[in-house]
Amino acid sequence: MNKTNTGAHYGFTQYCYPKDYELSGKRFELKEGADTFILDFQDREFVSCTDNNGECLSQYEALKLDDRTHIVFFGEFITTAVLDLENGFAVLSDLKGTRYSFCEISGMQQKGHRPGYTEDMTGTHVRWYFGNERYLENTYNEDGTCTCIWSPRTDRQRTIPAKYIRVKDGIYLCQLDSTSPFRSDIPQGFSKIIMLQSYEHLETVGCIYSPALNEWRLISGYAMPPEV
Amino acid sequence: MNLMEYPREDYSISHFARANSYELAGRELYLVMDSGLDYILTIDEEKCSWHIKGESAKQAPYMCFKADDTTFFLSFDVSDLENHTYVLDFEQRLVTQLICRKGVHPVNPHIMERVFTFGAIRMLGYKLPYKRHTFSAEHLGTTVQWRWSPQLFTRHAYLESDWYRITWEDEGAAAEDFDETNEMLPSTDEHAKYIKIKENMFLFSLTEETEERMLGDLQHFRCDNLTLLQNYDRMMQVGRGVGDVQRSGEAGYRHIFVPLAAFGSPVELPEAFLNARNPFTV
């Protein structure tokens, strides 16, 4: 029996990697200037996040991009954390992903440059495949926007607001904020896309998020040059 | 800058290799194997220590990849001549062990012996399951395209229980990599085994033994064993390759132990390819 399928039942989440439970039982203190954030991964499901506003317990989901780099989503809306345990740095968004903090992880030796907003990605033109023939084509523009084409609506192209963050060599965090066209492969309403991208291995992990539903779905995929 | 032109290494079929999973670190696994030998694995973030019950422990660096949330592919080299691979299925508390050994064939030291053993994972508070992972013909008839890198993809046909057949496009990275060797062979049929792990998940293990027997010193790769845990729900596979390779400009052979992963998609293959007789069987 031919076991293959097109992943239609998963759509944009077809190629999503298995969840990462490695953080379970671990506690991280993140510092940016005078601000301190504590992420306490209590088990495979819940994380406690403490900041200047107090403590908040929520469910989380995590994926790994490389051996020591995790991306985590949690919070009442969507908070994103990237933990670079190789270099001792972390990137942490605020409650709704409007601002990012670039932190040191206490107790770890910091190596290399602190993460930060970047223009490195400008000029990159890439097609990210998240499932069988389901892709998002991106051109990262100089003015901090991103031009997107969503499969299969190759007739539609939108230039949308974006945030670009350099995490470490070859690894970037990209957040795209906009709606996707009707009848594209992304479920309607899932308008925010957060991707941790490796240009060494041309892979990405992240999520699509719907502000209206306040839900996210984990995604993973690989990059192709758009002309291929 | 265009990051698609990032100065990356050439990873070949290891390009999409997954991040190593350290989720099993801190655990001791007691494996009750049908061979009658119980294996104990103790895993930390760097090494897997293993021993047969009653014997002394040895340890080795390991690769560990997840095929789904509860199924792990664990592999380590005991030496350049011996590799141990486990599929650890915590959903069903089952295990499949594959031990590959080189240097045991009396004539050709590259020929790799493969021994599969099935068993169960002993877990506190649970009875040992009576079910087992099993050799299976269930996914015979599958044709699939595996993308190993942005440039490289291959197409597999699983047609017989002990064989698989491979093809690729006339142009492109696969043709550049594989045409020269395979043009010397009457077909691309090669030794393979299929084990059902759970619904829509199979362990696929191929050994390039036919190529080794027919071509010997004419090739760079010698009787490699590629073992991949295939998730047909998500259409992805993870695994590892072991064997010997002769690099250009080097005398002698070097042992290789490399991670593998690929993204899958359905593919239709020509009838002539699918119906061609396997020339290596009677």
In words, what does this structure look like?
Chain A has no helices and 17 strands. With 228 residues, chain A is mostly beta strands. In chain A, strands 1-2-3-4-5-6-7-8 form an eight-stranded antiparallel barrel. An eight-stranded antiparallel barrel of chain A has the order 10-11-12-13-14-15-16-17. In chain A, a hairpin with a 2-residue loop joins strand 13 and strand 14. The model of chain A has no long low-confidence stretch (mean pLDDT 94). By secondary structure, chain B is mainly beta. Chain B is built from three helices and 17 strands. In chain B, the strands form two sheets. In chain B, strands 1-2-3-4-5-6-7-8 form an eight-stranded antiparallel beta barrel. An eight-stranded antiparallel barrel of chain B has the order 10-11-12-13-14-15-16-17. Chains A and B meet through strand 4, strand 10 and strand 17 of A and strand 4, strand 10 and strand 17 of B.
Largest sheet of chain A: 8 strands, antiparallel, barrel
Taking all residues together, what is the mean pLDDT of chain B? 94
Approximately how much helix is present in the residues of chain B? under 10%
- Output the structural class of chain B: mainly beta
Cα(first) to Cα(last) distance of chain A is 31 Å
Overall mean pLDDT of chain A stands at 94
* Fraction in beta strands of chain A: over 45%
Got a strand count of chain B? 17
Query: Whole-Å distance between the termini of chain B?
Result: 58 Å
Biggest β-sheet: strands ordered side by side in the sheet of chain A: 1-2-3-4-5-6-7-8
